[in-house]
Amino acid sequence: MNAFFSDIDWTAMWGYTKDTLYMTIISLIAVFVLGILLGLLLFLTNRKQNIFARMLYWVTAVLVNVFRSIPFIILIVLLLPVTSTVIGTIIGPKAALPALIISAAPFYARMVEIAFREVDKGVLEAAKAMGGGLSTTIFKVLIPEALPALISGITVTAISLVGFTAMAGIIGAGGLGNAAYLEGFQRNQPEITIVATIIILIIVFIFQFIGDLLTKIVDKR
Predict the structure, then answer these.
(1) Is 191 exposed, middle or buried (0-12, 13-18, 19+ CB in 10 A)?
(2) 119 touches 154 (CB < 8 A)
(3) pTM for this one?
(4) Contact partners, residue 78, CB within 8 Å, separation at least 6
(5) Confidence band of 173 (pLDDT split at 50, 70, 90)
């Protein structure tokens, strides 16, 4: 077993791991913020009689559905001109961020919308009856009541992002996907592919453990 892994450059593997964590964590923060905003917009404008609100919901819903439906590997290619302009390169961990964020934010936004819809309407009506404005209702009632579902949703999204970073690595974004495919598969070094896969699984398990723990902490039921 030791001989099987003796040719692995562990320093390089740690570098690949850091690239994967960088892409995942930075994109996850952006996805969390954008997902909350988009999900909140969908929730607040859904089923409103106001023409402007209905149009805003329709436009937002279409954009969310479109970007959520495009396969990630195709989205990376479609965004190459944008990535080159914004980031200045189409190679490396930073170059993967636009595609990671744009692909995952709509996915999480729908989870956010569903989480908000599951909040007891009676609680929201009670907050309004007590004189709470829109901002008070959102930050003091809506988000706290939906927090367990929001955390569960971002946990699922984080795991998806880890998988997306592996795909991004295949086309030059770096990370463990790059190690598994370019270093392991193309250069016929299966031990590298195996180690990269194991590290990806460990990262996924850690995200899942943290997400489950936080959900239990904030869940009042």
Answers:
(1) middle
(2) no
(3) 0.90
(4) 70
(5) confident
